[in-house]
């Protein structure tokens, strides 16, 4: 089972490493290299990349996520 996820939020700079086992999120340090560097360059150009993620929603409030209900913007 996957224990970590690297994520980036649209409109925000940088990437984050979420460690699901320890319950922590930390910034990914620059400079990025290899495949992660290539993916970050594509992201900077506006490409959305997903691999192994089957559900994700960005919210502006912890309340929405905690309530377990997301109705979208309309």
Describe this structure in words.
There is one protein chain. The protein is of the alpha+beta class. The protein contains 2 helices and 3 strands. It has helices at residues 34-44, 62-67; strands at 4-7, 16-19, 24-27. Strands 1-2-3 form a 3-stranded antiparallel sheet, with no helix packed on it. Strand 2 and strand 3 form a beta hairpin.
Which short descriptors sum up this protein?
16% strand, alpha+beta, 3-stranded antiparallel beta sheet, 74 residues
Short structural description:
23% of the residues lie in helices and 16% in strands. It is built from two helices and three strands. The protein starts with a strand and ends in a 7-residue tail after the last helix.
Topology diagram in text:
Blueprint: E1 4-7, E2 16-19, E3 24-27, H1 34-44, H2 62-67
Antiparallel strand pairs: 1-2, 2-3
pLDDT averaged residue by residue:
86
Helical stretch tally: 2
Q: By helix and strand content, what is the structural category?
A: alpha+beta
Low-confidence stretches: none
